[in-house]
User: Fold this.
Amino acid sequence: MKTKHILLILILLTAAYTSEAQKRRGAHSRVFDLELRGGLNFCQIDGDASGGYNKIGYHGGINTSFALSDDANWRFVVELGLTQKGSHINNSSLNRQISLLYVEVPLMLAYDLTDSKQLRIAAGVAPAILAKAKVNTDRAYDALHSDNYKRLDALPVCFSLRYRFSEHIGADLRYYNSMLNIAKENGSGTYRISRNNKGQFNNLLQAGLTIDF
Assistant:
């Protein structure tokens, strides 16, 4: 996905948020909110013969949510972000770094556990488009394996926990796990849901900071 397309989507998302917020502000305060988030990913790929969350990546995104209940505790979250996934295979016979950069759109059902909205839990899916894949094998660029990843990771599930220290600053933790195979060809692999769905699957933990407006 080209940078200009990503920027266009960001502009449209922000414009939609602003328009809706202006229309609804008089009827219900905080119907919409806006949040920036960013931090580190701790990644592995299930099924690629690696183990442990020893690939470090990054993430950043912007999201908005709208109320689903009268008390605004139940909310639906829509996010747009960049996230770097992958794995590091390091054993006696192979040293391979897999870096997969995705544009993702998490869609989550969230619940604010406290009246002050400090603590929020959420769960949903985060479909993602592969923007760039880079694989280094024994410290050299590996074109064959770099081209082995599908353009779409269509069904990662995600779970989120966010805590706000103040009205504007918070921290969050997320867990992602792909439900569909992300690789075109698999020398080995594991499976999800059924044995026919065999291959490789992104698996990662996120930790980061949030800024709310």
